[in-house]
Amino acid sequence: MGQPSILVVDDEFAVQQALKAWFSKSGYETHTADSGEAALSKLEEVPFDVVFLDIMMPGLNGIETLEEIKKRYPSTIVVMMTAYASIESAVEAMKLGAGDYLVKPLDPDLLDPLVARLLKYRELLQENVLLRDQISRMIRFENLVGKSDAMQAVYTMIRDVAGSDASVLITGETGTGKELVAKAIHAVSPRCEAPFIPINCGAFPEHLLESELFGHEKGAFTGAAFARKGRLELCSGGTLFLDEIGEITPRMQVDLLRVLEDKRFFRVGGERPIEVDFRVVAATNRDLQKAIQDGTFRADLYYRLNVVSIQVPPLRQRTDDIPLLAQHFLDRFSRETNKNIDSISREAMELLCSQPWQGNVRELQNAIERAVVVCKKRQVDVADLAFLQCSAAMPSADQALEQVIREHIQRVLKAQGGNISKAAQVLAIHRSTLHKKLKEYGLEPEGKN
Which CATH class is domain 5-131? Predict the structure, then answer.
């Protein structure tokens, strides 16, 4: 970056030369103009960082010239000069965007600090514009938060794959944010204006999953009182996100493979083929290659989905992100609960960073939400995270598996305040499954749902 440039605009030749000599001596590239019209002409040819502009000039006066400069070159700093100071002219100049207002005769010793201050101010404004742009891009990444090398690698992959229509397989443990990665891919892709349609493949039995994906015609089965579009039709032009793809049955794997290859399908009970344009992004916490070896997942479907793979790291592999994530969730839940909680104490943050976070980011999110609910001050302290300190020690090798499972469910349920829905999320099982386990082990939730 070269030396800052200054344009001095004054109809008095002596003022032009005096200011030019001073600024040139200070190392600034300095030019002069004797009228508003000449100044605008010069600005069309050369960008200037700062313009010193006299108010009282024949022809286009200083205020009119200022207005034109800010309209055409809003980032150019303009300092007004006048020998006839008035409050009205000063107010008008500042309203029009002047950086400062000086009264002649000018004190040369004040000019260099003034220019330095104005240039610093402009630099901060430019940084603010860049920051807003970065924040905008981060928002499009759907709350993906992290500065660790592991997450930077994920961001790079998102940007690399977003522009194509290649199928993406996202892998990672429960709670790492696989759906957020899928949403981010969609958000920065050419398909971003079309729908992002998710479906949890593990949440439906086979016959319901078929209807959810493909839709059905009226009378296709008992209870089908009217025709219904499936997720595939709804996501036309957009992105279909298949979560828990490893849970679908062998027959549904065949049907899905056919749709991915042909981009056409039939509604349940339908006879007319429906063509659809979509991109598929899938996710799983299972080892699909092992599932292929076990004969529970088709190799051809795996390779069709796994054109590009993104591994989302568990939280224990990016502990540097825990403070950032914790503050992110604190800000969010403070707003949602209308509580003025600004920060997390050093001791509380150390406790958060020392946890194993088996439920990863989702578990951390739930922990911060609970801390916000119980916190009575403006800072979350260790006492607000007491439920984390109640975690039992690791089970010994001779403990029965059923006992380990029972104790783990009990700990998670307690950590979630007895909320079965949230506990089921952390445990990565369905709510109905958790209810069965609670009944089986004789456990009772501490609170209502």
Answer: alpha beta
